[in-house]
From TrEMBL:
UniProt feature coiled coil, ranges: none
Family the entry assigns: Belongs to the group II decarboxylase family.
Lineage: Eukaryota, Metazoa, Chordata, Craniata, Vertebrata
Co-factor(s): pyridoxal 5'-phosphate
Protein name: Glutamate decarboxylase like 1
Gene3D superfamilies membership: 3.90.1150.170, Type I PLP-dependent aspartate aminotransferase-like (Major domain) (3.40.640.10)
CDD domains noted in UniProt: DOPA_deC_like
Modified residues (N6-(pyridoxal phosphate)lysine): 336
Quaternary data: Homodimer.
Amino acid sequence: GASMNSSADSGGEMEVDSNKQEIFQRKKNAVLVNGVILNGPITDSKAGEKFVEEACKIIMEEVIRKAADVTEKVCEWQPPEKLKKLLDLEMRDTGEPHQRLLQLCQDIIRYSVKTNHPRFFNQLYAGIDYYSLVARFITEALNPSVYTYEVSPVFLLVEEAVLKRMIEFIGWKEGDGIFNPGGSVSNMYAMNLARYKYCPDIKEKGLSGLPRLVLFTSEECHYSMNKAASFLGIGTQNVYFITTDERGKMIPEELEKQVQRARKEGAAPFLVCATAGTTVLGAFDPLDKIADICEKHGLWLHVDASWGGSALMSRKHRKLLHGIHRADSVAWNPHKMLMAGIQCCALLVKDNSDLLKKCYSAKASYLFQQDKFYDVSYDTGDKSIQCSRRPDAFKFWMTWKALGTTGLEDRVNRALALARYLVDEIKKREGFQLLLEPEYANICFWYIPSSLRKMEEGPEFWEKLHQVAPVIKERMMKKGSMMLGYQPHRGKVNFFRQVVISPQVSREDMDFLLDEIDLLGRDL
């Protein structure tokens, strides 16, 4: 192919002739099997390349160039039944022409939520990072699977380099780790790992002869703790939830009591899951005190820092995670605050005795042959419960290369400074009320329309206030001006949760957020 292209400029007509001859030869020498011609490629690669080029133009114009433009809508809301009609989802017997497909690409982008938009505040991820985006383009084009060095040499080395640096930021001298499809999966890995450490026999003998295993986590923890316990056969009744204080932090004295209670019941405590950056309130459990209790009782300490882990990059804010170096395992998602693109989630393990591999390996002989011609210690796929696995570390590596550690630190500092600014603005404005003083980038507040401002805070007031956020949310979605999440939580009526992440977000966006809520809700 290459030699032909290089001479193509001079011999355009010759090439056309030789192409014709080639096609003629192919037909003459056709090999038929079961009515299928097997000669030559079946796809037209030139047309395919052209399609990719055209589609890339659309992505550039409609997604990337518009990402930082606040005048664009965050979403063009359509109800499901209408959207089904608009999108033409039917898959037919005959293929459709490229022009039609390019139009579909336009439609898909048009009706999707623009998570890159500076005013998308709805989840714990947002914004566009150009470097991780290019990394994603590369991996999508190369289509690698990270299990062995032979099939994925570059991405295995990248993952190793990234894990090594993340381990340093936790404060461990050495360790192990793996990238997973989601923080929920990292938490599940950690739970299984802690159980394997407690009773290694379980891998082969299963659950039958085991005592009743119990784990402890705060009542503010992520719902994946319950899912992991049910998935692993531990049972959700054996997840003991520890009371939190008014700021959402686990109370160590309560943990101590519950561990004692489980022992008295004849159960076997094996794991404590602390949270560094809870989903709703952004609370950080007191890791040092929790680690003391774990050491005293010989329990595995896992820290779910999926959301809060990124504060480790900031010298100013890493004190939020004081004591994290005492954890046995940590979940940390660079796709959140550090914007590495969904998904990018690491589980890091302090152990250096190959515990991950011992716990998960199945020694598939068709992948992990021990007599290969290179160092097979680089074939890390057996540490995973997956077979095919995406090279997620590469996205984070590319961003880290581009920004450096100081650039990542600036991102964290800027997000938390903007959060501070918003908190101060909320305190100044009539009709806005903070739930609590935040420690991180989650700002939880009520908007109180003027009709409720004179009312005393009794049951009727709270019942009416509960109805305010959903109406404002509906109005903002239909207008497309921004997206912001709300929820009820632990006996508190519906409130907004604003999360600051993206470096494209400015002070003006914070002001807009409050003005827009007031505009959308003042008549309520």
